[in-house]
Amino acid sequence: MKDAFRHGAAARALAALVIVLLLGAIFNADGAFFKLGTHRDALRQASVYGILACGMTLVIISGGIDLAVGSVLALVAVFVSKMTIWWAWSPWISIPTALAAGAACGLASGLLVVYPRLQPFIATLAMMVFARGMAKTLSGGVKVATAVPQPDGSFEFVDVPSVFRGIDSRVLGDNLSVVTIILAACVAVSWWALANTVWGRNLYAVGGNEQAAYVSGISVVRTKLMAYIASGFFAAVAGICQAAQEQQGDPEAGVGYELTAIAIVVIGGTSLMGGQGSLALTVFGMLTIGYLEKMLSLNAVPEAMRLMLTGAIIVIAVMMQRRRQL
Amino acid sequence: MNWQVWLGTAAVGAIAMGCSGGSSSPEGGSATNNAAPADKIYTIGMSQCNRGEPWRVQMDADIKAAAGEHLNLKVIFKDAQNDTLKQRSQIEEFISQKVDAIIVSPKESQPLTEPIAKAYEAGIPVIVLDRAVMGDKFTCFIGADNVKIGRAAGEWLKTTLGGKGTVVELKGLQTSQPGIDRNKGFREGIAGSEINVAFEADMKWLEPEARKEMESALTRLPKIDAVYAHNDPGAHGAYLAAKAAGRDKEMLFVGIDALPHEGVMYVKNGLLASTFQYPTGGKEAIEVVLKVLKGETVEKTITLGSRVFTKDNVDAGGEALP
């Protein structure tokens, strides 16, 4: 039953991706779509969204939602930039600290969901507003960049930290971005956790029927908490990647990214009701959204038309998924 | 979860978001100085439409610095967080507080025209910064001309490239007036030359968007002579894309805004070939306030000049544009 669902859903998710790729091949922008660099760039651009979508998949399967990821991304981007650029901390300290900060935000959202039993929508909405405020407070309202403010009001210019350069570089003869490898690692870890661990199975059980999961002895509280912690952690990974690629921590970064992450998960075919879905589907969703953006950008499609086309593709992709419910 | 629940939570959410900023009244710091007891202390209310933008943070900083030089000025800074109605109530608060002068950088013209007129009619001098309001019920409007700045950027590129070349234009949000004007001016500036804008895209003022669009431009165009971005973060994003492709030496990068810690710094470090200042007018606003408080008459409209920063003049503080 579960396998049948998975294969059918995967085939439909693949169909949406194939449609976008076909459109890309037809409107190939003088052959630009067939260049290797285009695909490398498309994957790089989709990486931050994709990393957020990994955590989002886990939370959605557990029957929740995490609206805070875009703001947590900004908070971590500011925090990691402050530590590595302004304070010149070693990345061995700053990166783990930044990841812990993201996980702590996730933990806070999770605690609000499990103890006062706030609706996930409300709890994470509160965290979304709060984390954005923290990002602005921590940054003092400016972008945390390589121009370091001095006590006398002047600026001293420092180098971009090597860890940022490393994350924003490419390997395999310039053919693969490091952020794409980080995305692949995030996908692998969450895929493995979802498919092969007790916690992963519990996520499906809790998302499918919380009462039943509870009476059969599953720790609903711990299962849910860990989903939100994971989502916060992945948002932190995305925040570090964002900061490295921008070479700065922008407190306004990531506005609306949570909606893109949710769209990726839903286009893949994971149900917003919880209890169903997989990381494989999310990967299809990532590629669909990533290639759609790339195709529109390559063809220099005007902004207004892009928004309408993106809306239409989302509807078509989700309609194709809904057929399984008939 | 059914749809009613979703709608309910969404509605509560909207209210929660509305409240999140609504209850905060005087925000930001205030530039106070201990004046001699005999001096009257003048209170100035400053309503900024959105402190989320670095350029507007700079405007507030310029006002604070200029006011700090005068012992008898106290500035109350408020941030409307990009919300027109919030800004309207800030003006109303300033009126009931009976401040001595108001400086306002409006989010929108139409909805703020009336509140500003009410303050003006109540006898409070109102200095409008950057975006104009309608009619004439304000003391002074201070702003810069984006068409002129765009034209200067176009002319600079025309001269620098010798009248021909392939250019990428990364535009600011094309439903915002500065984006429209910086495009219009630029096209006027390069008119009559053999400069060809081979790729143009709306990067919505955002650096990550500019980088994405530039990657597409790099894939499509075998040779690019220059990139004109409507703001410095956009030019920086384009630079990062070109550098990643190993093509940053092939082209010039030109931006607009020239904030001291942003565009000017990029020019100093050789990332951008030039940046054109979009002045905040913060310093000029305080000068006008002082004149008005002394009872002097001021011009109704002050158009600020711009400066160009290039590698050659950046250490000397740029060069004023004609």
Describe this structure as you would to a colleague.
The complex is a heterodimer of chains A (326) and B (322). Chain A is mainly alpha-helical and 326 residues long. Chain A has a single domain, classed as Orthogonal Bundle (ABC transporter involved in vitamin B12 uptake, BtuC), CATH 1.10.3470. Chain A is 72% helix and 3% strand. Chain A contains 13 helices and 4 strands. A two-stranded antiparallel sheet of chain A has the order 1-2. Chain A starts with a helix and ends with a helix. Chain B has 2 domains: 146 residues, Response regulator (Rossmann fold, 3-Layer(aba) Sandwich), CATH 3.40.50; 133 residues, Rossmann fold (3-Layer(aba) Sandwich). At the A-B interface, helix 2, helix 5, helix 10 and helix 12 of A face helix 1, strand 8, helix 7 and helix 8 of B.
SSE run of chain B: HEEHEHEHEEHEHEHEHEHEHEEE
Strand order, largest beta sheet of chain B: 1-3-2-4-5-6-12
Distance between the termini of chain B: 63 Å
Structural Rg of chain B: 22 Å
CATH class of chain A: Mainly Alpha
Shape of chain A: globular
Number of helices of chain B: 10
Spatial shape of chain B: elongated
Mean pLDDT across every amino acid position of chain B: 87
**Helical residue percent of chain B?**
40-55%
Elements of chain A, N to C (H/E): HHHHHEEHEEHHHHHHH
The CATH topology annotation of the largest domain in chain B reads as Rossmann fold
* DSSP strand count of chain A: 4
> Would you count the extended β strands of chain B for me?
14
**SS-based class of chain A:** mainly alpha
From the helix content, strand content and strand pairing of chain B, which structural class follows?
alpha/beta
The CATH class of the largest domain in chain B, by name, is Alpha Beta
